[in-house]
Batch of 2 targets.
Target 1
Amino acid sequence: MALSASTRKLGSRVSALLASSSRLHSHATSFGFKEVREEEKSKMVGDVFTSVASSYDLMNDFMSGGLHRLWKDRLVSKLHPFPGTNHLDVAGGTGDIAFRVLESINSVSSRALRSGLTDELESGTRIYVCDINPNMLSVGKKRAAERGLGENPILQWVEGDAEALSFPDDSMDGYTIAFGIRNVTHIEKALSEAYRVLKRGGRFLCLELSHVELPILKQLYDYYSFSIIPAMGKLVAGDQDSYQYLVESIRQFPKQELFAKMIADAGFRKVEYENLVGGVVAIHSGVKL
């Protein structure tokens, strides 16, 4: 049966309204310099880290000349983790931060024992490594096993999303995220979740590639970022596109002052940041009061 002109016209209007509604509910976000739908970004970022997981630490060494190790040491030194703590490291699948937190706690425990303290210093200590990418977690578990930590109950490996954490309210003494918050779709949601899971007095620390302001250094940094890093990714990891995304995503990330404001807007107090290497990276921190 043929449709009448009025019916066809009504159908066209309904289709147009549905298409319009779909556009309204599918907001755009950035994937590097590209604009993509929000629901696509997490999969695209997941593909990046699935691709680079096996060479992630090697590439970090090449790209930073080994400096990323010192930056991570600095992050944990500002955290001051203590025996008995519940600590959450988000987007930390390879275990780099978690291992440092554990070493710091063990150091405190050793000093206390030498001082004659008899408390069960590590009783209740838990370090949760949360990452959305199972391939990154597999790398971390393998590294833990190589360090003799494969069966250590203190280290807990959890597959999870920074924007929707599975941990209870007010359950963590500390929260760290290193080179990860830049990749989430909604930074404000990740910050809100960090605030939610922290106890009163809990500390938030974020290590992230940031923005260089000094003109000469910025010029050199931009050349290195766009000309050297993607080529290095192709040579070392066999993946130029993922490292092209890396350098583009850094430029899309909020500048230091704006990101500090976002942390404060999430509810944190005593918000501050420290630039390292002229702003190539920055450590942001805040406290839940």
Target 2
Amino acid sequence: MRTRVAEMLGVEFPIFAFSHCRDVVAAVTNAGGVGVLGAVAHSPKRLESELSWIEEQTGGKPYGVDLLLPPKYVGADTGGINSHQAQDLLPEEHRAFVDELLARYDVTQVADEEPVRGGLNISPKGYEPLLDVAFSHNIALIASALGPPPHDLVERAHSQNVQVAALAGTTEHARRHAAAGVDLIVAQGTEAGGHTGEVATMVLVPEVVDAVAPTPVLAAGGIARGRQIAAALALGAEGVWCGSVWLTTEEAETAPVVKDKFLAASSSDTVRSRSMTGKPARMLRTAWTDEWERADTPNPLGMPLQTALITDSQVRINQAAAHPGAKARELATYFVGQVVGSLDRVRPTRAVVLEMVEEYIDTIGRLDGLT
């Protein structure tokens, strides 16, 4: 696929794979694409270990790191809050609701078990140590999944010959990213898993392509097959950004109960919910998302407080749901896009990439015959 993006990164296929799993990142890079590690919840120590491992596995091939850099979040006016401060800010009403919810679904906690204190490194004092680690490695790409990258980040990346990408859910977001000097803009439609806006990929991509030209655009949202890659390029994109398709691969670290749900789900089984991060994010609809939509349920907290509130409970839910017949299985969920309806079997990550490419070639050949 001879696109500008493929040439910029020096890859065979402009297929970017967002994943929290280092094994998936390495496998996609080794298959000719670009693996991108989602690291917003990593500690600097863990990120150092993950990137070192990825580089050992990929031998100098290009890969990237993805962070959340939102301009608005709880504590933004004071430079951010740490996980301990977040715990202190959690309302008792929300704690009580989560405790009652877990009890109703038979999710218990072992008496001597320490709670998991989750946190998102979304403030400068949270993500700057991660940037230090990332830039100490041979990364080819740094991506902002939420918000325009700061000017000093863009300058630092360019000084080290690192490409900068940013995700956009609206044309206005894309224009802001272009003004910030990014090298790639990911136009992500509402079909995508995780944080999304409300505009569909088919509409968003050509709008963004026209609005930010000549900055190259990647299409995201609803892309898991070669036909969808061909469609994205036809809309003016110069590559694709995929996330959901890797969640059912052999290498994925997806919780087994959630992976089983993904394999059985239809494209109608997802919902945009604030119940995991405090910002609208598409995930599998389950009893967890339904419970947060009840009229008598407290509203989800702002980012990063909602994550601090529910991280421990999510770990406990997945642990309890591992037992066949457990009521906790009804709660288990995770971020995934509408394309989950076509994820019906477990395959090696490399096989997914190559099947995408083969179907893309067949599609282009078929279209060639129509003109």
